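Long-time lurker, first post. I've been practising inverse folding by hand and with some scripts of my own, and I keep getting stuck on stretches where the structure tokens seem ambiguous. Below is the full token string for one chain I'm working on. Before anyone asks, I'm not after the true native sequence, just a reasonable design that respects the backbone. If someone could post their per-position residues I'd love to compare against what I wrote down in my notebook.
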């Protein structure tokens, strides 16, 4: 099955409205697709309507920001969720409410680094979104010709330890898993090897994630090279996780992967969609 279970629209920090992402999923030949906007479910109804019209099996999703052990951040994708589940809706609302204060702190740090009016610039890029994210700041910094592309912006300014990074308390792991599982969904760790944590800490997190109700990890995903896909496959086998697949699509021109442009899952792993369709 050609599937992509991790993508974003302009409701969070993608470039295209949900309907356009849905049309692109169909045009790219996807049989199964999920919209997983950051800490948000507002684009799901629009995306579902177009996907169903185009004959694409659709899964409602959201990518939830989690803080673990005080200062390590992970992203948990909820797939097959009920977007009207009250505790999930309320929890995501709390997360989003904290994002504006974080954005203003990022802008203050960027000001110290010589990047002026970053909040206003990022807000302009976030005009269709319910949040201001680091991606919106990155687009403004690229517009100002301070850095050439998204990777350079994050490496120089926005990643952990860089001048524009600010710590933030997101949802707890227990809360995120409770919301996803309570909404009838399946919890999947997004892009396991993109976090700036030591492998030992990642393994500790994966063990705790599994014990507390996590069901899968992304094995083939945006930003992972071929050898990293194999490493993720080994982690799935070691911890007994189901395997997910997703491009982390935000829009063409910023990242190399279009919808559906991920390697196939290793044949011995159980696809996460076996629980969902």
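-- Answer (accepted) --
I ran through it position by position. Result:
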């Amino acid at each position: 099955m050609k599937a992509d279970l991790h993508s974003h629209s302009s409701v969070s920090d993608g470039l295209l409205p949900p309907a356009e992402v849905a049309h692109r999923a169909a045009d790219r030949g996807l049989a199964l697709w999920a919209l997983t906007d950051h800490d948000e479910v507002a684009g799901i109804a629009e995306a579902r309507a177009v996907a169903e019209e185009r004959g694409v099996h659709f899964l409602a999703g959201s990518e939830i920001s989690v803080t673990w052990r005080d200062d390590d951040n992970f992203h948990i994708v909820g797939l097959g969720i009920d977007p009207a589940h009250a505790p999930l809706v309320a929890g995501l609302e709390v997360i989003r409410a904290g994002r504006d204060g974080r954005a203003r702190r990022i802008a203050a740090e960027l000001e110290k680094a010589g990047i002026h009016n970053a909040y206003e610039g990022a807000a302009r890029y976030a005009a269709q979104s319910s949040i201001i994210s680091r991606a919106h700041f990155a687009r403004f910094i690229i517009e100002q010709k301070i850095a050439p592309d998204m990777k350079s912006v994050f490496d120089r300014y926005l990643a952990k330890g860089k001048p524009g990074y600010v710590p933030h308390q997101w949802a707890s792991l227990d809360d995120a898993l409770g919301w996803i599982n309570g909404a009838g969904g399946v919890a999947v760790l997004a892009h396991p090897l993109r976090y700036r944590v030591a492998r030992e800490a990642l393994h500790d997190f994966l063990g705790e994630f599994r014990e507390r109700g996590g069901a899968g990890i992304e094995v083939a995903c945006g930003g992972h090279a071929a050898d990293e896909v194999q490493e993720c496959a080994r982690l799935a086998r070691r911890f007994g996780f189901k395997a997910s697949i997703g491009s982390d699509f935000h829009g063409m021109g910023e990242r190399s992967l279009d919808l559906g442009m991920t390697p196939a899952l290793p044949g011995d792993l159980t696809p996460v969609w076996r629980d969902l369709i």
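A couple of notes from the structure itself: The mean pLDDT is 96. The chain is about 40% helix and 15% strand. Happy to go over any region you disagree with.
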